[in-house]
Amino acid sequence: MADYIFLMHDDAAGGAGLDWERYLSRLREAGVFQGGSAIGNGQCERKSGATPAPTAHITGFIRVTARDMAHARLLLAGNPVFEAGGTVEIRELPTG
Q1: In contact, 7 and 88? CB cutoff 8 Å
Q2: Which residues contact 26 (CB under 8 A, 6 or more apart)?
Q3: pLDDT digit string (tens) for 27-71?
Q4: What's the CA gap between 47 and 43, in Å, rounded?
Q5: Label partner for 43 (CA 20 to 30 A): which of 15, 57, 58, 59?
């Protein structure tokens, strides 16, 4: 099993009214939910040089455990952003 992170973008229709409770409960019951949160405003920092603007279109994340990328994709079923036609970026988290 590997860890994956779902990065929710802000392009879902009706974004503020999305119902997360059912989806998160399903992930918990399946034993794959590892955490998550909405993401607020922030800033980028560097030791020297110009800093880029923070990525504004990412509004939250969910961390899950899955067998592989195909299994992680299946776990998107019921994700409110995904179901509303929005973008969910899936990234595998490196181990060790």
Answers
A1: yes
A2: 78
A3: 999 999 999 999 988 999 999 999 988 888 999 999 999 999 999
A4: 13
A5: 15
Per-residue pLDDT at 15 exceeds 70: no
Amino acid letter, residue 51: T
The helix (run of H) or strand (run of E) holding residue 32 is: none
C-alpha closest to that of 53 among 65, 41, 64:
41
CA atoms of 64 and 62, how far apart (whole Å): 6
Alpha carbon distance 64, 30 (integer Å): 10
**81 exposure class (CB count in 10 Å sphere: 0-12, 13-18, 19+):** buried
What is the tens place of the pLDDT at every residue in 38-47? 998 899 999 9
